[in-house]
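Obj: model holo form, ligand = pyridoxal-5'-phosphate.
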Amino acid sequence: MRVGARSKLPKFPSREKIEKFIADNRLKTPYLIVDLDVVEHNYKTLRATLPVADVFYAVKANPAPEVIKRLVKLGSHFDVASPAEVELALEAGAKPEMISLGNTIKKEEDIKWAYDYGVRMFAFDSEAELQKLARSAPGSKVFCRLLVSCEGADWPLSRKFGCEVDMARDLLIKAKDLGLEPYGVSFHVGSQQTRVDQWGNALGQAAALFKALEGSGVKLQMINLGGGLPAHYTDSVSSVNSYSSAIMKALTKHFGADLPRIITEPGRSLVGDSGVLDAEIVLISKKSYADDETRWIYLDIGKFGGLAETLDEAIKYRIEPLGRKGATAPAIMAGPSCDSADILYEKFKYQMPLSLQVGDKLRFHSTGAYTASYASVGFNGFAPLPTYCI
Ligand SMILES: *Cc1c(COP(=O)(O)O)cnc(C)c1O
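Output (holo C-alpha cells):
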C-alpha cells in the first residue's frame, strides 16, 4: 500500500456531504455525523505507516455498526470488552478469531460465553482473572497487561490496569501450568498520548519480560501496543507517521529484526476525526452587571449527552460557531441538565463571536470517538446522542 505525502495530513469529513445530509434529513440537534471515508483513510494510513502491526479496532471508541462493518471490510481485527461488543463485531461480519477480549475485568460467565462463540484471545493482569480464564477458556491465548505510567496522555488509563513486570512474569509462567497459552504482553500508554516516545518506555519493560520468561522456558509470541494515538483537537499533535516511526525504532532497538507478532488497538485515532457534532445554543447569559463578566453559553448537549471527555476539561474539541463571524470574547460553555457538574469548559475560555444568538449552532469537530458511546440513557430526559454514518 502506497501512501503519499498528502496522507500525512489529517483528513476531516467532507463539509459538502455533511451539509447535504443535514438538509436532506432535516436533522435536529444534537447529533453526531460520522464520515466513514475518514475512518477508512485513518485505517489505511495506520496500516501503511506501521505495516508490522495487525490492527484491532477498540470498539468502545465508536460502536456504530456501520463503522465496524467498514472496518471488517478493510480486514481489521477487534478489541472488545463485553459480550455485547463481541456480538456487535460478529454481527458486522468479524470472525471469532479476529476478536480479542482485552478487558482485564470480566465476569467468568462472560468469558465462557465468548469462548463458546469461538473467541480465543483474552487479557488479564491478575491471578484471579487468570484462574477464571483457565476454568472457562481452556487452551486460549492469554496476554498480560503491564502497568505503565501514561505520562503525556490527555486521557490517562493508568493505575487501574496492568501489573508490574515481576508479577507479569510469574503469572505468565502460571498460565502455562494452568493449560493456557502464554501468548504475550499488552500495555496502554494512555489515550490521546501526546508524546511519541511513550511506547519506547513500555517496550523496554516488555523486552525485559520476554527475556526473563525465556530463561524460564516460556517463549512469548506477541506484543500488544494498545491504543493512544491521537485525534486532532485544539492542541496540535504529531503525525501518525511520527508515532509509527518512533514505535518502529523502539521495536527494533529492543527486539532486533526478530520481531514477535505486533498488535495495535487504535480507537480514538481511527474514528475521532471522522465525526462532527452539532449543538444548538439554548441560552446566553451573564451572572452580574459587571463589564468584565464572562458570557455563559448553554447548549442542548453536555457532559451527560455525549461530551463526557470534557471531564476536567481533558479533551478540548475544536468548536466552530456556524454562520457567525466578527469580534470575539471569552465564554464559558455548559450543558442543559440540572447538574452543576454539567459545565463543559470554564477554565479554558473559548473565544466566541459576540454576535452569537440563542438558536445558533456550534459545531464540535473530531467528535467521532468517545461521544455517542459515553452518552447517558437520558439524564433529565435529554435523549442519548444519535449517530448518523455517511
Ligand atoms: C480504550 C482502549 C483502547 C483504545 O485506546 P485509544 O486511546 O482510543 O486508541 C485500546 N486498548 C484497550 C485495552 C482499551 O481499553
